[in-house]
Write a structure and sequence with these properties.
Order of helices and strands of chain A: HEEEEEEHEEEEEEHEEEEEEEEE
Oligomer: heterodimer
Structural class of chain B: mainly beta
Distance between the termini of chain A: 5 Å
Strand content of chain B: 35-45%
Number of domains of chain B: 1
Helix content of chain B: under 10%
Largest interface: A-B, 54 and 55 residues
Radius of gyration of chain B: 19 Å
Number of helices of chain B: 1
Strand content of chain A: 35-45%
Number of helices of chain A: 3
Largest sheet of chain B: 6 strands, antiparallel
Order of helices and strands of chain B: HEEEEEEEEEEEEEEEE
Shape of chain A: globular
Number of domains of chain A: 2
């Protein structure tokens, strides 16, 4: 439950102290080209940068508690409020100080996670099949221990299916959270709070048949409202292919959906670290998100994509296919100008911050933003219930 | 019940006289550079300037009555910043302002000393004791030559000792009052007025030591602050005002003893510039 009235908002902030302010600061790098969208998650500053660690093609869930598994890349929002309380953004402010590039738009997103792409998964022209599922066996080791093939991050939200009977303690069509033990094993928590606390399912038996885990969007059921973008981690040397085919499952559970518009990926000048590859001023560019198939409102998972046509990337780049949920926007009209949004009265929306949200700014520059330009922000959070 | 329970209770505070008004005026003499952050607590005017004068490297606190004055202690009532207004006739003072609660400082960190400089922590944070949300700024108190870098070891909000990433200082000389890590367009800087912390840290409880990797010259004070509110002056001669219940509804809580001061991301030098402003505070029954 959130705020029931303005009086309740005053009570929660003043009498109950349910308020948090968080400042963040990032430094742009390198020079941005005009008309492009960028992720700030790879930029140095506070919070620290992410380099999209993980296994190529494998889903890497992100949250406030473990970040990308290596770095806590999201803006800390104070953890889950507990009980039935829900957390909301009350106000936000941001500024950019740069010799060139204004005006800008900043978009706050909740990064659900990403599929890391490296080496030939960046340079290749065939279909890349992304990893959303693993079969697993169950055993006993300080609780129910799952053993599988890939290295899923701690906090990855999953559901289970089986050909016969799941291990005792696991149910079909129910969300669970992995508590990573090693690169091929994890224990299981029944809630996000239990995952943070390290409270795991006990071992009773290993079930029978072949079991499968399938990743879920961590904070939005079936990925409702979630969008996708290819973001550069390490720039490839050259090239600029087209997204010629793709397959994702939408938030209604329909598989085989395809991104539309045949987006073109940025060539060398538009393929630097942080850049959303398919954004920009040229024809065939879309930003910040890939256009969904008609009628779709979100992405539950992405199964595959093909980059072909155009010019294949060369070199040894790293790209992440990020899945994110947009929360709010703020414009920064000129350099050095502190821009603000009151999300209670001015633009009444009170964006909800889900437990474990990994908050990241996306940046759009109408001009070529100078390198080493500070992006600062302050966010007011409040929670009630 | 401590604190305000309703909008009406807030309004009642005015009727009951539970409001405090404070004006201030700053006329700095120090030259600064466009785009840098500047600590206005050190500048002349009203309230009186603060010089971060105490025994070198020993943690010290500022007297709350020498900052932007919020009156006598109000506990067990809860006091909030209600309004903030700022105006200037000087172009250099156009920009973003941040109101801070100055909690603790470590004076006279030597920018030429490449040895580890160990702090003396006989004094703890007087407010926000766990350090959550407490930030650090490196304020120049004797002009530096620039070009340096340093790291610092600190106790974070969870009581864990961590070492910061490398803090890159300005490439040019820094004058008194300027935050030495806030020059624009310099790679490796923290990107704002505050120093960068280690991954996942949200605040600082105390500083253990500082080590310069490259000498920066001059002296700095490392100041632990808690950001409270922001306001921007967008043009000269026009007052910027905010009501923190109605316009930006997250009225900052002001604790007993708080030393309130401003930092500014200035548009040009603020030498001989003028800043005037006011705050009002209200408190619950």
């Amino acid at each position: 439950m959130g705020f029931t009235s303005l009086d309740d908002l005053v009570t929660q902030i003043s009498a109950n102290g349910k308020y948090l302010r968080r400042d963040s600061a990032k430094l742009t790098s390198p020079v941005h080209t005009a008309g492009g969208w960028h992720s700030t998650m790879g930029l140095a500053g506070n919070p620290v940068a992410s380099t999209f660690p993980g296994t190529s093609l494998l889903w890497q869930g992100c949250d406030e508690n473990t970040g990308d598994g290596t770095n806590l890349l999201g803006i800390n929002n104070g953890g889950a409020p507990g009980g039935t309380a829900t957390k909301h953004i009350l106000n936000v402010g941001a500024s950019i100080v740069a010799a060139a590039g204004a005006p800008w738009q900043l978009k706050l997103v909740d990064l659900q996670g990403y599929y890391r792409l490296a080496t030939t998964d960046v340079t290749g022209t065939g279909s890349r099949t992304l990893i959303n599922t693993n079969t697993f066996t169950a055993s006993s080791s300080s609780g129910l221990l799952l053993t599988f093939t890939n290295d899923f991050a701690s906090g990855t939200k999953v559901r289970f299916t089986t050909t016969t009977t799941l291990p005792t303690g696991l149910s079909l069509a129910t969300d669970y959270w992995l508590v990573r033990v090693s690169s091929t094993t994890a224990r299981v928590a029944t809630s996000y709070a239990n995952y943070v606390a390290g409270t795991v399912v006990a071992y009773t038996d290993g079930g029978t048949g072949t079991h499968t885990l399938t990743i879920q969007m961590p904070r939005y059921a079936n990925g409702v409202g979630c969008q996708a973008a290819f973001v550069v981690g390490t720039a490839p040397t050259a090239g600029g292919p087209n997204l010629s085919a793709s397959s994702y499952t939408n938030s209604a559970g329909t598989a085989g959906r395809a991104f539309t518009g045949s987006p073109t990926m940025g060539a060398a000048a538009d393929a630097y670290a942080g850049r959303v590859l398919h954004s920009g001023n040229a024809a065939g560019r879309y930003g910040p998100f890939l256009p969904l198939a008609g009628g779709d409102t979100g992405i539950a998972s992405v199964q595959s994509f093909t980059w072909s046509g155009g010019v294949a990337y060369t070199g040894s780049g790293v790209v992440a296919l990020c899945i994110m949920r947009p929360l709010l926007d703020i414009s920064v009209p000129v350099t050095g100008m502190w821009s603000e949004r009151d999300l209670v009265n001015q633009l009444p929306s009170l964006p909800k911050v889900e437990d474990g949200a990994c908050l990241v700014w996306m940046l759009f520059g109408t001009g070529a933003t100078t390198t080493a330009s500070p992006i600062t922000s302050a966010i007011d959070f409040g929670w009630g219930g | 019940m401590a604190g305000f329970g309703t909008v009406g209770a807030w309004a009642d505070a005015y009727a009951a006289g539970r409001e405090h008004f404070c004006s201030f005026r700053k006329v700095p003499s120090q030259a600064t550079v466009a785009g840098w952050w500047v600590d206005l607590s050190m500048t002349s005017g009203n309230p009186v300037p603060n010089y971060y004068a105490a025994s070198p490297l020993e943690a010290a606190v500022l007297d709350g009555e020498r900052g932007i004055f919020h009156g006598a202690d109000k506990s067990p009532s809860v006091m909030h910043l209600a309004k903030l207004g700022l105006v200037t006739p000087t172009a250099g003072f156009v920009g973003r302002y941040m109101l801070l609660d100055y909690l603790l400082y470590y004076p006279f960190v030597d920018g030429d000393d490449l040895d580890v400089q160990t702090m003396v922590n006989d004094v703890a944070l007087p407010r926000y004791e766990d350090g959550a949300g407490v930030q650090v700024m490196a304020v120049c108190v004797a002009p530096s030559t620039g070009g340096g870098s340093f790291t610092f070891t600190y106790v974070n909000q969870d009581g864990v000792t961590r070492t910061s990433p490398t803090q890159v200082c300005s490439t040019t000389a820094s004058g008194i009052t300027s935050i030495v890590t806030s020059q624009q367009a310099v790679a490796g800087m923290p990107g704002g007025p505050f120093l960068a912390l280690a991954s996942g840290d949200t605040g600082v409880r105390s500083i253990v030591s500082v080590r310069h990797l490259v000498a920066n010259g001059g002296l700095v004070s490392l100041v632990l602050v808690r950001p409270l509110a922001d306001l921007a002056i967008r043009e000269i001669n026009t007052m910027a005002e905010r009501h923190f219940l109605i316009q930006h509804p997250a009225p900052p809580r002001i604790y007993d003893g708080a030393y309130l001061g401003l930092i500014v991301n200035c548009a040009a030098t603020i030498a001989a510039a003028t800043l005037a402003g006011f705050c009002t505070f209200v408190w619950s029954e």
